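Sample A.
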Amino acid sequence: MNPHRAAVLLAMTVSLAATAAATAAATTASAVRPDPKCLVRPGQLAVTRGGDDRVWHRGDSLYACTTAYAHAPKAKRMGPWAPGTKVSFDGSNLAWTVPMVIAGRRTDRVWAANVDAGRRWMLAQKPNPGGADKPAREGRVQRLQVRDRALAWVTAGGDVVGALV
């Protein structure tokens, strides 16, 4: 092979490799760059450590945005919100309470959803779902915690409740 052609092929190979690296870097940068829909919002209730995933309310609705699994961020309505709502968010799964008054007594309902999929997996659960020998009971949720596909909460009466997707 002629030395001139070898030099041209080498230059083209280096140029293509540099272009591919620059394109890959640009693609990676655009995949992790937060979408304007996930920026700080009025009514913000929770944000993950990295700051890219958020939960907020507007009016009587709860919204969330996640960048989990490198999916493009998109704001999604998750369900109802009311003053006094408690929220737990791990960046992918969200749990929250909605306070209400039933028969003159204050109580909560527990909700949970996967933000990435936009699907709720717990809808308006009573704080103490009861069991084989006890009926479900009303009450207030003192604290709740969601991690991956598991949710646990403690009621003001001291009951500890757990749920899985």
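Sample B, a different protein:
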Amino acid sequence: MRWAFSVIFVCAVASLFVPHAYAIIFLPAIVLIPIAKIVALIIFGFSFPALGIGVLWSKLFGKSLKKTLTIIIFLLLLLAAILVVVFKIYNPERPLF
């Protein structure tokens, strides 16, 4: 009974004393869903060739799964680094991170 009373009391206090929050930017789902789709497409566009090269590496050279995953991760990091350099050359005012 004491536990139920304390939970009800905390919920009542939390609902009565709500701090005011001001949103800087409000983006509805109509805007966010296409952005999420674009990001997913970019990630898939980089990971699919890396996975293909990793599978090819595994089949041609008979390497273990651990080495294949290492190659795939290395290729993804290499592609990301190349993109950072290309974007930095394209727009020098853009920060690296």
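Observation for Sample B: The chain has a mean pLDDT of 79.
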